[in-house]
Design goal:
single chain; alpha/beta; 250 residues
Length: 250
């Protein structure tokens, strides 16, 4: 169900155990070969496919395209919410649905920079409602819902990266006219420096062109396989939210 298409009495009639999916993405640079709106376009496509499969089993909020992208602000065109403003936005969205009585809320993320704020937002919201035992507050990233290696057996990259093989392949599958000359792109390794720590960084620290990974290895065929795998992963995840017994940790 798409919240944007519904009338308020239809929302009022829903079971409050219906999983509510809040898609969160970004508008930021994706190298010289990819459009700024890549994260939102890709998450929007996965949400569209998942909603088609789930039907009335879940409620999908409109996609939030503004994300936490300050690490990309060296590249023109990037738009980013201030970090604390973004946390307040996510907290507010969760509180909106709690006020309407819904109890199973998922921030479904499509941008690496939103992973930490998403986790922090569900943590903060849970602490404000710590006396309740019926809440399920989750933050999940779509590409972590499937085994990338099993999705496609000829991938060069084994992880998402940024505007690399995976994202470029998916864009070639859904909006090829927006993808530039990938043959001209060079590999930018992910890097493993200080692997046991979390490092403060900007994208310029890691990549002059703005991408991380191997865009030149992308193909539309790989992209369709990845989109299918990620969609199925999201569907199975939402089904597990729907099937939660309402109280247990498991």
């Amino acid at each position: 169900m798409k919240l944007a298409d519904m009338k308020w009495p239809e929302v009022e009639a829903l079971s409050r155990d219906t999983p509510v999916i809040i898609p969160i993405a970004a508008h930021e640079q994706h190298g010289r070969h990819m459009p700024l709106h890549t994260d939102s376009l890709l998450l929007g496509e996965i949400v569209r496919r998942a909603e088609d499969r789930l039907g009335c089993e879940a409620l999908f909020a409109p996609l939030q395209w503004l994300g936490n992208s300050h690490h990309h602000m060296d590249f023109p065109g990037t738009l980013s919410a201030e970090p604390r403003v973004y946390l307040d936005l996510l907290n507010g969205l969760l509180e909106n649905f709690l006020q309407h009585g819904f109890k199973r809320l998922v921030l479904l993320n499509g941008h690496g920079g939103n992973i930490v704020p998403g986790a922090q937002a569900v943590f903060e919201t849970r602490q404000r409602h710590r006396d309740r035992t019926d809440l399920l507050l989750l933050s999940a990233t779509y590409w972590e819902q499937a085994n990338i290696a099993e999705a496609c057996d000829d991938l060069v990259q084994d992880a998402m990266g940024h505007a690399g093989e995976l994202e470029t392949s998916m864009m070639l599958a859904i909006r090829p006219e927006l993808v530039g000359d990938i043959a001209a792109t060079a590999e930018v390794p992910k890097g493993e420096a200080f692997a046991t720590a979390t490092r403060g960084w900007t994208t310029k620290d890691r990549s002059e062109p703005g991408h991380i990974g191997v865009p030149a290895a992308a193909s539309a065929k790989k992209g369709e396989a990845l989109l299918n795998a990620f969609t199925l992963g999201v569907v199975h995840f939402v089904e597990s939210v729907r099937n939660w017994d309402g109280q247990s940790w498991n």
